[in-house]
Amino acid sequence: MTGPNRDNSNAEQGQVTTADRARLNAIGLRSRDARARRTIDRLRDGLLSLIETSTLEAITIDDIVEAAGVSRSTFYRHFATKEAFVENIAETEIQNFVGHTFPLLSSHDSSAACMAVVTYVGERRKLWSILLNGGAAGFMRSQFIRLAAQIGPGQLDDAPLALPLDLGAAFGVAATVEVLSWWLRQDKPVPLEDVAGLVNRLAVRPALDP
């Protein structure tokens, strides 16, 4: 009688141990992901602080890790090159931006929606100036178009487009990027309302039905 009970008890303990191990593994993965995200955020902030006094081309990995307060080996655990690091930042910003942009084409109030997008970029002006008008400009534009082709049609099914879905998505994003690039190159400040108006007039309204 005691043998089977002991076996059942061991089996139950084995099941609990397996479940606990899986739970701990999941917690460990989340913890590592969170640490990695914090490290990347520190590297990004370090890069942005350096841009105040230097150009992206002149900044080295050693400069970035020193400004971020991390080791060079930590940088290389995440990125093989400085270019890969900048592209990672660009891809994250593009994904966030696309989430803000596509609702423009289905919004009942495109003026307000354009203002929201311009405000988003304005709050990250230094970073976006680097991405759109610096060394990552070519990557940014190609990635924007790629994501527009992938994500746009699925998000614009109900939008009152005057263009085919894939063309409307690509056109809207490309024109928006060109307006933002122009804005960020200006030496004199341009009011957000004026930039939003340009995005609405040049990028959004042409893609919508009259």
UniProtKB/TrEMBL annotation:
PROSITE patterns: HTH_TETR_2. Residues 60-79 bind DNA. This is TetR/AcrR family transcriptional regulator. Residues 37-97 form the HTH tetR-type domain. InterPro entries: Homeodomain-like_sf (IPR009057), HTH-type_Tx_Regulator (IPR050624), HTH_TetR (IPR001647). Keywords: DNA-binding. Pfam families: TetR_N (PF00440).
